[in-house]
């Protein structure tokens, strides 16, 4: 007998017998538990790092497209719509038609990033966060490679449009996929959510980095290097999320339902949108995103239309806005995360603040 069961105050207590094999087995089990705990901690830390990098590199990149306007004009995008090409200013639109076409391009990218979120939510519910992350990352890498080809081979406006639109469609998939790390590692779920939201806003500075790097390197080289980095990060995040979802080193705790218990099917998309509260929320978000997107796209033009600033001052304002917009989003994400934790049981109070700030923004603009 390896175990003896002596009676101790009316209850049974397991005691190891004097067996070297048992002591070795217990030591190996303790070591295995310690290794699993260490792997789970390391996986959680790596999940936070990969969430930060992936969302920054591939998430809300298109929301900083206004800082990319000078590069697009320098590439001659839509300049064929202007009659007098000799009078084109450097890194500025040649005519109103070219400006309108570039603004339409950015509008399509921003609206795609907002609208595709619903479909990624369906994919995440039905196929898992790993599939969502893989889809978004693959599309992001393909879009960066499209920008590389468009800049290297001068493929024309259609190639630029397709690549930038692809970035808008890819970002929400990367964002929602990385949120899956919070379910795989519950200990760092608040950190993952806050980091993802902060990097989603901060990634608007990516095109500003590209514009700065394009002063020293060909734009095609910058796009290819970014695509390579995105591919490495996306694959690493997908592998870690896939391993954690399969029970590799995530710490998800015991399942709430037995393996043979029937699972309720996910609600249909049309049933969700048929709810009155969702309809009102969708209408509010659609109108606010429309207003904020128009502001992002046209703020540079509005400053110049005032006629109170010189071109040099307007350029300095452009640089300030391109930095302040993602920095403000980063700071706001921290405050919003703290407010959500404090008002977790008072969602109406939190949402009232959101509505008040949105109305104030629209009124001031």
Give a brief rundown of this model.
The chain is an all-alpha fold and 365 residues long.
Nearest-integer average pLDDT? 80
Mind summarizing the main beta sheet?
A: 2 strands, antiparallel
Globular, elongated, flat, extended or rod-shaped: what is the shape?
Answer: globular
Supply the helix-strand structural class: mainly alpha
Task: Please bin the fraction of helical residues.
Answer: over 70%
Distance between the termini: 81 Å
Rg over CA atoms: 26 Å
**Elements, N to C (H/E):** EEEEHHHHHHHHHHHHH
Given as residue ranges, the uncertain stretches (5+ residues, pLDDT < 50) are: 1-18, 22-39, 250-259
Bin the strand percentage.
under 5%
Helical segment tally?
13
Number of strands: 4
Strand order of the largest sheet: 1-4
């Amino acid at each position: 007998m390896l175990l003896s069961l002596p009676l101790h105050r009316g209850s049974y207590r397991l005691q190891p017998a004097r067996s070297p094999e048992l002591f070795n087995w217990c030591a190996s089990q303790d070591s295995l538990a310690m290794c699993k705990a260490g792997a789970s901690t390391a996986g959680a830390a790596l999940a936070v790092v990969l969430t930060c990098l992936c969302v920054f590199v591939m998430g809300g990149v298109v929301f900083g497209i206004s800082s990319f306007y000078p590069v697009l004009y320098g590439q001659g995008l839509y300049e064929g719509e202007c009659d007098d090409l000799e009078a084109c200013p450097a890194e500025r639109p040649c005519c109103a038609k070219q400006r309108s076409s570039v603004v339409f391009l950015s509008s399509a990218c921003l609206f795609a990033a907002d609208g595709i979120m619903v479909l990624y939510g369906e994919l995440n519910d039905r196929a898992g966060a790993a599939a969502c992350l893989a889809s978004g990352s693959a599309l992001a890498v393909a879009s960066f490679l499209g920008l590389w080809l468009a800049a290297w081979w001068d493929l024309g406006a259609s190639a630029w449009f397709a690549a930038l639109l692809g970035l808008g469609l890819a970002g929400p998939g990367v964002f929602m996929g990385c949120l899956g790390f919070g379910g795989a590692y519950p200990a760092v779920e608040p950190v993952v959510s806050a980091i993802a939201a902060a990097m989603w806003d901060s990634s608007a500075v990516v095109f500003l980095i590209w514009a700065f790097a394009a002063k020293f390197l060909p734009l095609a080289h910058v796009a290819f290097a970014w695509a390579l980095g995105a591919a490495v990060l996306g694959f690493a995040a997908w592998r870690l999320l896939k391993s954690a979802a399969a029970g590799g080193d995530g710490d998800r705790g015991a399942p709430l339902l037995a393996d043979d218990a029937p699972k309720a099917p996910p609600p249909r998309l049309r049933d969700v949108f048929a709810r009155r509260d969702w309809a009102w929320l969708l209408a509010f978000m659609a109108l606010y995103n429309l207003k904020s997107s128009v502001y992002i796209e046209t703020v540079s033009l509005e400053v110049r239309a005032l006629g109170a600033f010189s071109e040099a001052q307007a350029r300095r304002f452009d640089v300030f806005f391109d930095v302040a917009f993602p920095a403000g989003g980063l700071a706001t994400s921290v405050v919003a995360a703290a407010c959500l934790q404090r008002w977790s049981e008072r969602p109406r109070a939190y949402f009232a603040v959101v509505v008040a700030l949105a109305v104030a923004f629209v009124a001031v603009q």
